[in-house]
UniProtKB/TrEMBL annotation:
The keyword Coiled coil applies. Heterooligomer composed of large and small subunits. It is found in: Cytoplasm. GO terms for molecular function: exodeoxyribonuclease VII activity. It catalyses: Exonucleolytic cleavage in either 5'- to 3'- or 3'- to 5'-direction to yield nucleoside 5'-phosphates. Keywords: Coiled coil, Cytoplasm, Exonuclease, Hydrolase, Nuclease. Belongs to the XseB family. InterPro entries: Exonuc_VII_S (IPR003761), Exonuc_VII_ssu_sf (IPR037004). Bidirectionally degrades single-stranded DNA into large acid-insoluble oligonucleotides, which are then degraded further into small acid-soluble oligonucleotides. This is Exodeoxyribonuclease 7 small subunit.
Length: 76
């Protein structure tokens, strides 16, 4: 059983998505298993989006802090 989505890194989630995609492309997925694979894919995509948004916010914060420091230096 794969780890819970919250325990996965971005890379692990992408790798699992790629594995599911390869299986779907080669028709290696039984029709009965298709629904669970699609649901798992949706979970992984949500996780990846969340991690990307979080990283974007963290990076934006770093740049805001740098700008604040530069503004403070201008007044010094």
């Amino acid at each position: 059983m794969p780890p819970k989505s919250t325990e996965l890194t971005y890379r692990q989630a992408i790798e699992e998505l790629e594995t599911i995609l390869r299986a779907l492309e080669t028709d290696a997925v039984d029709v009965d298993d298709l629904t669970s694979r699609v649901q798992r894919s949706a979970e992984l995509i949500r996780l990846c989006k969340l991690k990307l948004r979080s990283a974007e916010q963290a990076i934006d914060q770093v740049f805001e802090n740098l700008e604040d420091e530069e503004d403070a230096d201008d007044f010094a």
